Please model this.
Amino acid sequence: MASILKKLKSNFSDKELFNLALTHKSASAKNNERLEFLGDAIINFYITQKLYENYPDLQEGKLTRLRAGLVSRGFLNDLGLIIGLSQLVKLGKGESTKNNSIVGNAFEAVVGAIFLDSGLEATKQFLDTLYFEEFSKLKPLEDLKDSKSQLQEILQKKGLPLPKYKVVDHGPKHDEGRFEIICTSSELDISATGKGKSRKIAEQEAAKLLLEEHFHNEE
Model:
């Protein structure tokens, strides 16, 4: 997947635009925030169109829930990490890409830059490459309520605050267990730890374990 970024950079006719997409506000007053704004809208449009075309029998509610997972900040951050954006983002002194959304924001900015440089069809082709596997894994006719959502609803019914998720990034060498997430409900004094190759997977695993260990009788 990292080769995608090299090919993308070489195909850019406006190299300054590509560099701007990778410039965080901590590094320069001339940064990627406007491109991020544009890219966010394009990704939402892309996912919305794909879901609308691929699942004609799904109602708005389920389409919205599917889209939410595919455009979430954590998911976009994972896509940015997969193609190696964390190694290229230009940061100011003391800034880091760990435990924040800087890489995901840069990914949105890159999408915005591709649109300006090459047009909508080229942008869709880029996103098709990254989202192909995710679309193939979707099971829209099954219950879409994931473990995080189930845990959130149970705690809300009990009048308790939402669970907290603490992330530890062990780096790319750990592959399948790169991310370690501790899911905690401090009011109930319970926690569970999940691991996965992405933050999204690790968070779901942590929430699932907490449900299995402490709420298996809950509806």
